[in-house]
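In this supplementary section we document a worked example of the pipeline. Step one takes a protein sequence of length 371 as its only input; no multiple sequence alignment statistics are reported here. Step two produces a three-dimensional model, which step three serialises into structure tokens for compact storage. The input and output of this example are shown verbatim.
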Amino acid sequence: MRNRNQTPLDQIRDELKRKLKGINAASRKPSLVEKKLVGKIRRITEEQNLNNVTRTKAYLDFYLRHPEIHWAFFGHMVSRNGGYNMSDLKGEFLAKLMSKKDQETFFLFLERGNWLIFQDIYPQFLLYEESLKQNKPLFYLLPHFNVSSFMETIWNHFWRNRDPYIHCMAMVVNEQSYLEYRVIQNQVYQKEVLSKLEFMLQDLLSFNHILFPYGREELIGQTLHHFESLHERILLGKRLYFVLFNNKDLLSQVVAWARTHPHTGSRKDYWPHLFNDVNEGTPGFSFPLRLKSCRLNKGARKFYSPKLEYAWKNVRQPKAEPGDWFQDLKVVDYLADELENIDGEIRNEYCKTLERLEIAAFAKKTINFLE
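The serialised model returned by step three reads:
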């Protein structure tokens, strides 16, 4: 029996507490119809989980059908940035600054995380859609997709209360916690990626900028300064949510931009005045620095930012590692609405990052030429 005087977070905390104690943990065997539904959802998820471009489109398509699920658009925009980062590895700057081995290792790191999130979250979306069709919650089937028990509680709460903020924040907590134990704490990635990434992220690469384009060459977003910290990644998610959803007029502009600019992975998608998905460079010919305050010097060629389909081949992923990350009720604290006003200004910071990248790539090319 629920206490009507409880806050939504208290209700969620109580239900999760019972889960941790194993109360009502027994689950019935699915019926034949339910087995077929689980199989159908798995097939659709696998089809859409081909690469970053297909995943990113699937998130947007779902949001346009169900705008009450804020994470679908949140995830779409963040996934776009994941695609940009993947393509950057074969683009104008990083191809000069990183070895081919490091480029591939970084790509596999980004691709694994992108793939893992989709295979965890998209079945949740499809099960929600089926629940709407049947006019009853079907979230008791989530364990069949190895989804955390945390999310079963969250989806049932959303079904009853329709609180988009709590739901989206819970999904942020879920996705980042899910990645923590499968990617961030993975010993291979710790050695081959994160030890290098920690230095490069802070001082050079644009991996830590999450950009939300809108209008004509406009950007909002946030910057992550401690990628290796689960806490900081969750807080970044909270800030990004505020930037994206606090202003309805701005949100409508970002959605309109996303609808009219299909995701390709090339940064040309949002800044065609700076980037081109065709390499305009002449082999062996060295150009001077071209960029000043996010504008190209007169007559300068654009920076190369390839489409993802030409930068990387599709990767067949091994199955997700088993296990439920949810073990501590403290994560519920992240669901509280406690953010101050954030304007999302990021253009100037991003422009400076591009200038640093160009200088670093130019210097590396010059040193290689002299050698």
